[in-house]
Amino acid sequence: MRNEAERLSAFAQLIRGCGISVYEIAKGTRIKYDTLLRALRGKSIRSDLEARVRFYIKLKDEEQ
């Protein structure tokens, strides 16, 4: 249980610290804005959506 909470917290921190707005992530990944807000609150989202967010952040990071 604690490991899952820590993982969700780390994912939320990744989204906050990436330097990309939540709106831009939502548009770029075609994931609903509300779903990303849920992830920012430390709630779980589907694993395929989480993978898309991580991939998008990684792509944007490599562009810079």
How would you explain this protein's 3D organization?
The chain has 64 residues and is mainly α. It is built from four helices and no strands. It has helices at 2-17, 22-29, 33-40, 47-63. The longest helix is centred in the C-terminal third of the chain and has 17 residues, at 47-63. The chain starts with a helix and ends with a helix.
Short description:
The protein has helices at residues 2-17, 22-29, 33-40, 47-63.
What structural category do the secondary elements indicate?
mainly alpha
Series of H and E elements: HHHH
How many alpha or pi helices?
A: 4
Number-wise, the strands total 0
Calculate Rg over CA atoms. 11 Å
How much of the sequence lies in strands comes to under 5%
Mean pLDDT: 96
SSE layout:
Layout: H1 2-17, H2 22-29, H3 33-40, H4 47-63
Keyword list:
64 residues, mainly alpha, 0% strand
